Amino acid sequence: MTFRQGGRLDTSGVSGGGRGGRRGGRGVAVGGGVGGLAVVLIALFLGVDPGQLGLTPGDTGHQGQYSESAQQFQSHIDQCDLQQANTDTICRIVATAESLEDVWTAQLPAQAGMDWVQPHTNIFTGLVDTGCGAGSSDTGPFYCPADQEVYLDPAFFDDVLVRRLGGSPEGAAQMYVVAHEFGHHLQTMLGDIRRSQQDPRGPSSGAVRVELQADCYAGLWAHYATTTPAPGGQAPLLESLTESDVDAIIRTAEAIGDDHIQTVGGARVDPSSWTHGSSEMRREWFLVGYQQGTVAACDTFNAQL
After folding, report:
1. Longest distance between any two alpha carbons in the chain, whole Å
2. Is the dihedral of CA 262, 157, 21, 82 positive or negative?
3. Averaged in consecutive runs of 10 residues, what is the pLDDT profile of the chain (305 residues)?
4. Strand ranges, E, within 43-132
5. Which residue, 102, 71, 98, is CA-closest to 85?
């Protein structure tokens, strides 16, 4: 997935280094009717005990490449442009968030009759304070519905996703992770994210259906990302999506399946404990969104799993 060359990025919806930098999205009021949703931290991307991956509390295996202070993080974010987004992980996150805003701003009114409200994106390392409680790099990327923020540690991609789980190192895989978390924000807007707490475990549980739907929404974004114009009728931020890019996303979706994570951690595969779905499920539901491109097709709650 290649971003077009040249052009600045709007970084107003992204902050770095921890909580407290909310500045709003492009012309969109951040907030709305779900801001007070009383839930604990849910929709963790991995949903597993870090010990299963050979990690101890406070140890993510990070090599310190993102040890910037909050001020340095923010400076890095604010200097991002589209060309850098093709090579720099932090800038890629910023550009992906902007592309997601473009796609959902166009598609949500057309498909669901409601306006998109952009979530805030918080790029951090180490520990972070959230509206859902304390978060850390150990948990992997996550979305907090109480403050409507997506939290991402850029070191996660190489240190955990690739090195420990065998996901793809390609930029497309990182963008899929961001798109998945934005899918949880859409679920908050639609009122579906609560189902994760009501039925939290098992291969056909509400929790698994919530995660698979977020994968499907990530696929829907990929379906439109190279054809949706940027504001003002400018060319789409993404120029290309190749077969190799889709393969990288599929490899990563499979790497974060519950069965694969349990195997990597040396545990037996136990479907009754699943919270996110198997590798096969995650691959299939991303492809449903990518191939069909509709919110209706992503109805995991009425699908037979």
Report:
1. 53
2. negative
3. 86 77 30 22 37 39 49 88 94 97 98 97 87 79 91 89 92 96 96 88 94 97 96 90 96 94 91 94 98 98 94
4. 120-123, 127-130
5. 98
